[in-house]
Specification:
Blueprint (H helix, E strand, L loop, with lengths): L2 H34 L14 H7 L1 E3 L6 E3 L2 H8 L3 H34 L1
Antiparallel strand pairs: 1-2
Helix pairs in contact: 1-4, 2-3
The structure holds zinc ion.
The site of zinc ion has 7 residues, from helix 4.
Length: about 120
């Protein structure tokens, strides 16, 4: 293995560890945010609904096409309103999605390094 490839391999391992740690921490942040929500909303089966879970269940009908769709991010934030816990949870969900994408890229890169070395 060329020295340059060795450096890249070690960097990929470090990035892998960093993204994996981020994903775990963001999972905790999501959990904490949802736990902190003081919503009194209830679902059809009497289960607690956070402002976020309610917003994620909502759908709207497009005027022009009549199509049903889920809310866009800005609409979700609007639906959440002032609950800082649900806002934090939603932001953490977005950040975790991004971190998962990054982790996927690193995994693919590690695969490339592995196949090149094998
Ligand atoms: Zn809330």
């Amino acid at each position: 293995m060329k020295q340059n490839d060795q450096v890249k391999a070690v960097q990929a391992c470090a990035a892998y560890a960093r993204h994996a740690a981020d994903i775990k921490a963001l999972g905790n942040a999501i959990h904490e945010g949802l736990e902190g929500c003081r919503s009194k909303l209830r679902g059809d089966n009497g289960e607690k609904l956070t402002h976020l879970s309610k917003a994620l269940r909502e759908s709207v009908t497009e005027d022009e096409t009549g199509e049903h769709r889920r809310l866009y991010d800005d609409e979700i934030l609007k639906a959440i309103g002032r609950c800082s816990h649900c806002r934090a949870a939603f932001n953490a969900i977005k950040a975790r999605k991004s971190a998962r994408r990054s982790l996927g890229q690193v995994k693919r890169f590690i695969g490339v390094i592995g196949r090149r070395t094998a």
